[in-house]
Automatic annotation (TrEMBL):
Protein name: histidine kinase
Entry-linked CDD domains: HAMP, HATPase, HisKA
Reaction catalyzed: ATP + protein L-histidine = ADP + protein N-phospho-L-histidine
Major localization class: membrane
Cellular localisation: Membrane
InterPro entries tied to this protein: HAMP_dom (IPR003660), HATPase_C_sf (IPR036890), HATPase_dom (IPR003594), His_kinase_dom (IPR005467), HisK_dim/P_dom (IPR003661), HisK_dim/P_sf (IPR036097), Sig_transdc_His_kin-like_C (IPR004358), TCS_sensor_his_kinase (IPR050428)
Single GO molecular function: phosphorelay sensor kinase activity
UniProt source species: Anaerostipes butyraticus
HAMP domain sequence ranges: 174-228
Length: 451
């Protein structure tokens, strides 16, 4: 029950409550129908016996029966007994117990096997201590059979009625909660995109959905302001750090070139210089990310031959790869046109290939492929390097994340892959990674083809 959706929970509660109410109502109908049917039959038999006695005349210590007296009328049979219980007039139904005792003014139900009758006896005194008994007999078997069949029919229909109630309840609940699903879908779309300036449309009626939508819009507004402040801070901080870092690098280079330093002092200055250059690269990347995120505009995209772009970037990276003895193999199909920003796409390929070279095996290989498949422009950058642990595959896209144990002392800022993922997303594409520890990695991506 805890794992059920709200729609299912409401439906189950709604169906359960209505099923209990329906069960109580049906039980009440059964009892009322049975009691009412027997009561009506009892009154009919009593009235019929009273009416039948009108055919008997008591006079001078004896009685007389009218010549046109009928002993069967409207389903009721009449029997006349003397004071000793001997049948004088009339006949009994088949299978009726003939020895049924007479009880004055008492309606009763007599059973014999599956057959049932209701009888009513009335005693009338005449003469000197004499009595005459009149009995009315009517079958209630048909009524009981009808009630039994009605009960069975209702019991058979009951599960169907419950299922119908459940289906109707689920439909009503689903329809009532449809605005919530719409809100969640739109909220996912906004939160999954890069444009937090979008807002949910407010319902026309100021109900609970209206207030929920307002709260979501307020939350998106706060998030938008927070992200804008964060981006602005990164941009401002990067810009302000460029000058002191540049001064630090120039002073270190001056000391190494013109300063009278001992060997140990030179080594210390070289450490400072290396770290300053690394900081400079990090600041430059942060500033570039901040600027490109502001400037990226899909309306300004143009047609880019992605195959040619991949070849150009691969050629530029060959010198860096040669420094580690790594060979870059390029296999691209011609005329793979992507609608996008050429600068951003080049930066994406450069980061992927640089990442493959940086973490590849010395003397190893890097494969760059671009091809068309299923109406998409697909690409792969594969290396035979150190690979990535399975549990860390989803973390590599985070900014500043580096898999320390596997990547050791290798250089890198931890911003390259996060920028790659952002660029792919801006262009409406997808990127995935397959990797096995110690056997290399494959970064595969796809973009909508523009023909």
């Amino acid at each position: 029950m805890r794992k059920c959706s709200i729609k299912m929970k409401v439906t189950l509660w709604y169906t359960g409550i209505l099923s209990v109410i329906l069960g109580i109502v049906l039980a009440g109908i059964f009892i009322f129908t049975n009691v009412t049917g027997l009561s009506v039959t009892e009154e009919e038999v009593q009235g019929a016996v009273t009416g039948f006695v009108g055919n008997i005349r008591f006079q001078d210590g004896t009685f007389y029966m009218d010549g046109d007296t009928e002993f069967y009328n409207d389903g009721i049979m009449f029997c006349v007994y003397d004071q000793d219980g001997q049948l004088l007039y009339g006949s009994m139904p088949v299978d009726f117990p003939s020895r049924t005792a007479l009880q004055s003014h008492n309606a009763r139900i007599i059973e014999n096997g599956q057959k049932q009758w209701m009888i009513y006896d009335a005693a009338y005194s005449y003469g000197n201590g004499k009595a005459l008994w009149v009995r009315g007999i009517t079958s209630i078997h048909n009524m009981e059979v009808f009630l039994l069949m009605a009960r069975r029919a209702l019991l058979i229909l009951f599960p169907g009625i419950v299922l119908l109630i459940g289906a109707v309840g689920y439909f009503m609940t689903k329809r009532a909660l449809r605005p919530v699903d719409d809100i969640c879908e739109r909220a996912d779309h906004i939160s999954g995109g890069d444009d937090l300036s979008q807002r949910l449309p407010l319902p026309k009626v100021r109900d609970e959905m209206y207030h929920l939508t307002e709260r979501f819009n307020e939350m998106f507004e706060r998030l938008q302001k927070s992200f804008e402040k964060e981006k602005q801070f990164a941009s401002d901080a990067s810009h302000e750090l460029r000058t002191p870092v540049a001064v630090l690098i120039s002073q270190c280079e001056y000391l190494l070139e013109h300063g009278e330093l001992g060997q140990e002092q030179k080594e210390e200055v070289q450490v400072i210089l290396r770290q300053a250059k690394k900081m400079s690269a990090l600041v430059s990347q942060m500033l570039m990310i901040a600027r490109e995120e502001k400037m990226a505009d899909p309306e300004q995209f143009e047609d880019v031959d992605f195959g040619m772009l991949a070849e150009i970037v691969s050629e530029e990276m060959e010198s860096q790869a040669a420094g580690r003895g790594i060979s870059i193999h390029v296999d691209v199909q011609e005329q793979q046109i992507v609608r996008g920003d050429q600068t951003l796409l080049m930066r994406m390929m450069m980061n992927l290939i640089q990442n493959a070279v940086l973490y590849g095996r010395e003397g190893g290989n890097v494969w760059v492929r671009v091809f068309e498949k299923n109406g998409m422009v697909n690409g792969e950058v594969e290396d035979d390097g150190i690979g990535i642990r399975k549990e860390n595959l989803d973390k590599i896209w985070n900014r500043f994340y580096r898999e320390d144990k596997s990547r050791g002392e290798e250089e890198g800022t931890g911003l390259g892959l996060s920028m790659v993922k952002w660029i792919v997303k801006v262009h409406g594409g997808r990127i995935r990674v397959r990797s096995q520890k110690g056997k290399g990695s494959v970064f595969s991506f796809s973009f909508p083809e523009n023909r």
